[in-house]
Design a protein that fits this description.
OmpA family protein, OmpA-like, membrane, cell outer membrane, eight-stranded antiparallel β-sheet, 9 helices, Jelly Rolls, 60s Ribosomal Protein L30, Chain: A, 3 domains, Bact_OuterMem_StrucFunc, alpha+beta
């Protein structure tokens, strides 16, 4: 990937080169183009440096990110691909999230990262008709649920999700391509009706009162996907299968999946790209109460197929940062994600942070206090420091990537001292890991 710099530096070089040009309007036009092209690339640099910045000085991080001698880019977490030809896309993670407009719901109702589940076993409370088990993945942190071929997996959620909610999870597709078709992967939602959402009957038939699923069919150099919904046993919505070369960029690495359901409307993003926005994609009646994962069969041996999920989170309600901040005076979000135990911001946080930047740009007199919070995992003193580091990282990204005046932003951290929910459950912990924005 070509070396790129923060737009201000690129603009300075351009300004010097334009000395003597007679047309100011033309110069300004070129300046804006350079700014627009360099801005998203610079953002990725900043994300990679913020973790260092909190301990070594924010300004030094910005200098490092903008230096022409710094040729590194934010690496994407990878798993070893069995076929060395399946190289991860060289595109920086944040670049693929530069237009990401997903904002998660504001009230977490389900969360699972398998951290306390036993390796080699199905997660406690989950149901399956195959051999899906929790595993560790080489060079990738955490516990992951490996989805088995010829099987369906149901979560242990038993509550209704309402009519307005979001779903997020991380996905790894690691396939040893040998020339024939690997199995397809379905992930989707079920309204179980009069059945329990974990009932065995749903392992054989996922349509329930209504259902929605996206199916991904991997290919060695691309892949296809489709979206379908059903009302009881009748198809309600269907999109034609799309062949997309971007699918290969999801192989051998962590891809982030997000869904937003608003009554009949459904939107789906993978790695920051909006793949679907169907205004009438879901039947009105019925309430979703289950998420499922299904892997088909194939000629491949099980050890040649690696399909893994982690960090599943469902949140209710569509948070509106603009309304919350401007009318209510504060906005709290669990949608800014950090690497575990770190202040390094994950690229899927872009949608929320960009929405805050847009509000600040539209309201130039507005100042914000940014406050980080953690759950109670680990040492309280460390959590306090970490929460301060994370709020500082958010501030620096707003300043460096979106041009917000740093004097309009102050930061603080409360660690684990101000929980919104009990830290005794995964849902409570997820709700407590948050960032607050308050007018000042």
């Amino acid at each position: 990937m070509k070396n790129t710099h923060i737009w201000t530096k690129a603009a300075l070089v351009l300004a010097v080169s334009m000395v003597g040009l007679p047309a100011p309007s033309l110069c300004q036009s070129l300046f804006n183009k350079v700014k627009a092209r360099a801005e998203s690339a610079a953002t990725s640099k900043i994300l990679n440096e913020t973790d260092k910045a909190v301990s070594k000085g924010i300004d030094k991080a910005i200098e490092s990110a903008s230096s022409p001698n710094n040729q590194s880019s934010t690496p994407q977490q990878q798993v070893p691909a069995k076929d060395t030809k399946l190289a991860t896309s060289s595109t920086s993670p944040l670049l693929s999230f530069s237009k990401y407009d997903f904002i998660p719901g504001d009230s977490v109702i389900y969360s699972r990262d398998f951290a306390t589940d036993v390796i080699g076993e199905l997660p406690v409370g989950w149901n399956s008709n195959g051999s899906s088990v929790v595993v560790r993945v080489d060079k990738v942190p955490g516990h992951w649920l490996r989805l088995a071929q010829r099987s369906v997996v149901l979560s242990d959620n038993e509550q209704g999700l309402g009519q307005n909610f979001t779903v997020e999870f991380d996905l790894i597709l690691d396939i040893d391509f040998k020339g024939w078709m690997p199995p397809s992967l379905q992930f989707g939602l079920i309204a179980s009706g009069d059945k329990s959402p974990t009932a065995n009957a749903l392992l054989n038939e996922q349509r329930g009162d209504k259902s929605l699923y996206m199916e991904i069919s991997p290919q060695s150099t691309s892949g296809t996907y489709t979206l379908e919904s059903n009302e009881k046993y009748t198809r309600y919505f269907n999109s034609a299968a799309k062949t997309d070369p971007r699918v290969k960029n999801w192989y051998g690495r962590i891809a982030h999946v997000a869904l937003h359901v608003q009554q009949e409307r459904v939107r789906i993003w993978i790695d920051g790209e909006k793949l679907y926005d169907a205004p009438k994609g879901i039947a009105k009646n019925g309430e979703f109460n289950q998420i499922f994962f299904k892997v088909s069969s194939s000629p491949y041996a099980d050890e040649q197929i690696g399909m893994y999920i982690n960090h599943l989170k469902i949140a209710k309600g569509a948070a509106s940062p603009r309304q919350r901040l401007l009318e209510g005076g504060s906005f709290s979000t669990t949608g800014i994600h950090f690497d575990s135990g770190s202040s390094r911001i994950k690229p899927e946080s872009t949608g929320v942070i960009k929405s805050i930047a847009d509000i600040l740009k539209e309201n130039t007199a507005l100042g914000l206090l940014i406050v980080g919070h953690t759950d109670n995992t680990g040492d309280a003193e460390h959590n306090l420091l970490l929460s301060k580091q994370r709020s500082a990282a958010v501030k620096e990204l707003l300043v460096a990537a979106y041009g917000i005046d740093r004097n309009r932003l102050t930061t603080d951290g409360k660690g684990e001292s101000a929980p919104l929910a009990s830290n005794n459950t995964p849902v409570g912990k997820a709700q407590n890991r948050r960032v607050d924005f308050m007018k000042q």
